[in-house]
Amino acid sequence: xxxxxxxxxxxxxxxxxxxxxxxxxxxxxxxxxxxxxxxxxxxxxxxxxxxxxxxxxxxxxxxxxxxxxxxxxxxxxxxxxxxxxxxxxxxxxxxxxxxxxxxxxxxxxxxxxxxxxxxxxxxxxxxxxxxxxxxxxxxxxxxxxxxxxxxxxxxxxxxxxxxxxxxxxxxxxxxxxxxxxxxxxxxxxxxxxxxxxxxxxxxxxxxxxxxxxxxxxxxxxxxxxxxxxxx
Length: 231
Prior knowledge:
The protein has 231 residues and is an all-alpha fold. It is built from twelve helices and no strands. The protein is globular, with a radius of gyration of 20 Å.
């Protein structure tokens, strides 16, 4: 019988775990900043090009991940619209850990933006208007009124968005390239192990993802339970 710890002690098997953790931290930071900012921006009905921005943010939820990754590859690749300028500065996005980070951020971004947008529109809008009437600036209103009001929504959204980053495959394949010991995440390592016939490694890594998913589920239930108690 195999020992799961022996599999995890192998540096080759540990690397995807470490990269996924690093990706999760990068996604958490970016989702916290971008997710809240975009959610607040989209809650403003008079925002210029609001429909276009909303569509771009929501696109990863409804568009096939591989197709999304291909579009990003065309944009960020060495000869892409943006990628060629980055390449001229010595910055390589595609087939690097940076590509994996970007894939995780984009795939999970709608899961934090849309709840924040909805929470502001449904519960914080009246408080925001009252704050403006009292002479508070938009920044003071956002920091002192809106953020405390929707903090539970933000935490729940971050749990879902970061959890999504652990399961991302399609966009990561395009931007990261699935390079062993460089851009191979836990999900890609499971995919590769199955095709290599290494079911033991796939089982152990799947178990790690299962534990993480259960922790997210527990955290979501805890938030809902606390909200019910407060109500």
